[in-house]
Specification:
By secondary structure, this protein is of the alpha+beta class. Helices cover 28% and strands 26% of the residues. It contains eleven helices and 20 strands. A six-stranded antiparallel sheet has the order 10-15-11-12-13-14. Helix 2 packs across helix 11.
Length: 574
């Protein structure tokens, strides 16, 4: 028999042993029994190692097709021969009998060829097995196109264009004393996405520098940024308050506002981060199709105590702090040992009523009285009456008042969050992709790497209704609702949606989606984040992830230049 290696580009998809029937020597034309093996099988491990590991890298050169991609679907058919003598006989070696690359058939589908049958007549088992191959062909084709479209890979900053349209900079910050300067960076001190973002701008015709804000050299930094047309701030929330002198964040924000006042563009500006990134943005959009009408914001102790005791008496709630990230200070709340009231406002909880709490950063559960929870939220875990807390974060969510982001948002708990969140990844007003984040291990939180990610393209059937409502209906009025009419939308931002039951339909209810939060301060690029925080750099990102991420960063560059062009056009018109 022959051994067929079925290849998709440079990927071995399966191995097929074709044994001639009736004692013949030919395995073609349906005269063979087929046995299928997976890559890595013991039976053909030596053949696979030699052909894939040794011969394949030099195959194109040997065949004179160095400048061509390997075929999308092709085969190498091997014939066995006696090899070296071994104990008890000789080893088996294999030589290629032929390559096939013109129009290779898919064996699991060929049984219905040539007659009155169609694809619909293929048995399910064969259909789904063949789909594994055709889907791999699709993803491999896209990978080849990305590599061709993107050209060479750049792990370092590109040189500036000879005559750049605009001068821009990516601003980073290194936390004093922290490994790598923070968990979002590599050993070179850069965020892993900084270079691709800067290169995206350079590809779009602008120059772009990577510059670092140093809190103890504020005046020097001020002089430096004066020369730029636009600034992209890539500093995680809270980092400017770590290991720095008091007031560093405020000084930095004041500087960015000063740049805006001089006509420069800043992404994301302090106003956009405050108005859009703050959790009380959910209150401001409560009247849109993507909002929840029963969403409340608390800025001081009295309103928190009054509001939470009333909402918690009616139904399970989600309490969200304004600061922090990755689910820190986001609490799911259930009433314990007491029934919910029938209508909102019918009852208010007492201090000694008990509640069950789950923090979304790690899904850990705690049980407390209402009084203990409210004390923790306002004064922290060590305050008298707070009880004992397992959370590793300090509470005090109202500290500093509105001016310093002290607030809590109270929203209805939507139990279908267990199905996962749907993230719309936006570049300005352009939907770049949709990501479904499904919590793992039965949890309710999809943050902090605790989720399985599935990616969808804009226009996908699965989220067509959500896309139509958010992009078509809500997005045009979003800036007005958030009070940022005069600001451009962030260059990179997300809207995270939670599913809920909608209107009754035949057989059940429809699914609607509401925004759980916006992120616009320093959104990470998921295809690059696997190498953050350790010893790896951009060079360690796999090619497929790198080129996929560059689709996003290149779009960011194009959009940034578009914003700058629009700014200049506005100046001319005025």
């Amino acid at each position: 028999g022959e051994v067929r290696m079925l290849m998709v580009g440079d990927i071995l998809q399966c191995i097929i042993h074709k044994k001639p029937e009736s004692g013949g020597l030919s395995a073609v034309g349906g005269q063979a029994a087929y046995t299928y093996f997976k890559p890595g099988c013991v039976e053909y491990a030596d053949l696979e190692a030699k052909f894939i590991g040794q011969d394949l890298p030099s195959l194109k050169k040997a065949l004179g097709i160095d400048n061509e991609p390997l075929p999308l679907l092709w085969t190498a058919d091997f014939i066995p021969k006696d090899g070296k003598p071994i104990l008890g006989g000789v080893s088996t070696e294999f030589v290629v009998g032929e390559f096939n690359c013109s129009c290779v058939g898919i064996s699991k589908l060929q049984a219905v060829c040539g007659g009155e049958k169609t694809l619909a007549d293929v048995p399910d088992a064969d259909y789904y097995e063949s789909i594994k191959l055709t889907d791999l062909m699709g993803t491999t084709a896209v990978r080849m196109l990305l590599q061709k479209k993107q050209g060479p890979r750049y792990n370092t900053l590109l040189p500036a264009p000879a005559d750049p349209k605009f001068k821009t900079a990516v601003i980073e910050f290194v936390i004093p004393g922290a490994k790598n300067g923070g968990s979002d960076k590599g050993p070179d001190g850069h965020r892993v996405d900084s270079i691709p973002i800067a290169n995206g701008l350079i590809k779009a015709g602008a120059s772009c520098d990577l510059i670092r804000y140093e809190f103890d050299k504020h005046e020097e930094f001020t002089a430096t940024v004066e020369s730029y047309d636009a600034l992209l701030v890539r500093i995680n929330p809270g980092q400017l308050s770590q290991g720095t002198t008091p007031g560093t964040q405020e000084r930095f924000d004041t500087l960015m506002n000063a740049m805006l006042a001089k006509g420069k563009l800043v992404w994301s500006s302090p106003a956009v981060q405050t108005q859009m990134g703050a959790k009380d943005a959910l209150v401001k959009i409560s009247g849109t199709s993507c909002g929840l009408v029963d969403t409340f914001a608390y800025y001081e102790k009295a309103s928190l105590e009054e509001g939470f005791k009333k909402t918690m008496a009616f139904q399970p709630r989600v309490i969200k702090q304004n600061r922090g990230s990755a689910g820190e200070g986001i609490w799911l709340c259930w009433l314990e040992g007491k029934d919910y009231c029938a209508n909102f406002g019918d009852a208010s909880l007492d201090d000694d009523d008990k509640i069950k709490l789950m923090e979304m950063n790690d899904n850990h559960v705690e049980y407390h009285t209402v009084k203990e929870f409210l004390t923790f939220c306002v004064d922290g875990p060590d305050a008298p009456g707070a009880g004992t807390w397992a959370s590793s974060f300090p509470g005090k969510y109202l500290e500093g008042g509105v001016a310093q982001g002290g607030q809590l948002v109270d929203q209805r708990f939507l139990p279908r969050i267990a199905e996962g969140e749907v993230r719309m990844l936006m570049v300005g007003d352009i939907l770049q992709c949709i990501i479904h984040k499904k919590p793992e291990s039965g949890g309710l939180s999809a943050v902090g790497g605790q989720a399985a990610y599935t990616y969808f393209k804009p226009g996908c059937v699965e989220y067509a209704d959500l896309e139509a409502k958010f992009i078509g209906q809500d997005l045009p009025s979003l800036k007005k609702a958030l009070g940022i009419d005069n600001e451009p939308l962030p260059l990179l931002w997300t809207a995270d949606f939670i599913p809920k039951d909608g209107k009754p339909i035949l057989g059940g209810v429809s699914t609607e989606f509401v925004v759980g939060e916006f992120n616009c301060s320093c959104v990470g690029i998921s295809k690059l984040q696997a190498v953050c925080g350790g010893e790896k750099t951009l060079a360690d990102v796999p090619d497929e992830d790198y080129y996929e991420a560059c689709l996003l960063t290149d779009l960011m560059g194009l959009k940034a230049v578009q914003y700058l062009d629009a700014r200049d056009l506005g100046r001319k018109l005025n």
